[in-house]
Amino acid sequence: MRLAVRVNGEHYEAEVEPRTLLSDFIRHELELTGTKVGCEHGVCGACTVQLEGEPVRSCLMLAVQANGREIRTIEGLAADGQHPLQRAFHEHHALQCGFCTAGFLMSLEPFVRENPEPSEEQIREALAGNLCRCTGYRGIVEAVGQAARETGG
């Protein structure tokens, strides 16, 4: 099937098998390997990208379902340098191995943009769909709060 998408602001066209997952298309066809594939069941959140500005699990979506739409991956999060959420993750030591980090960032970027003063409970609810095996979540919660204050509203 013919697929035409905008990824991180660039137009791409390709022939894909109807069963090609969006995660596989992004990683193998576009060679944007920041999007990770963890559980392949939509549970861990590592494969999260934004479709039309909303977080989606790319391992649960067929590439052809994105036809004609806008996708943003971690590579497109901060075209002008480091996004405040990325900076806050660094400052609060909110990552260790980094495998899950792109998924967290792509899931949480819309949240921090729309919530200038989230409570800890709201932050924990927002990150509940992403799993990290290396860190405690304290640094992640603190980073999200900081980034929300910097970018929200």
Helix content: 25-40%
Task: Give the overall average pLDDT.
Answer: 95
Distance between the termini: 41 Å
CATH fold-level assignment of the largest domain = Ubiquitin-like (UB roll)
Instruction: Give the tally of structural domains.
Output: 2
Write down the secondary-structure element order.
EEHEEEHHHH
Quickly count the helices: 5
Helix-strand category: alpha+beta
> Which word captures the global form?
globular
* Sheet with the most strands, sense and barrel status: 5 strands, mixed
- Tell me the strand order in the biggest sheet: 2-1-5-3-4
CATH class division of the largest domain: Alpha Beta
What is the number of beta strands? 5
By CATH, the superfamily of the largest domain comes out as Beta-grasp domain
CATH architectural label of the largest domain: Roll
* Residue windows where pLDDT falls under 50 for at least 5 positions: none
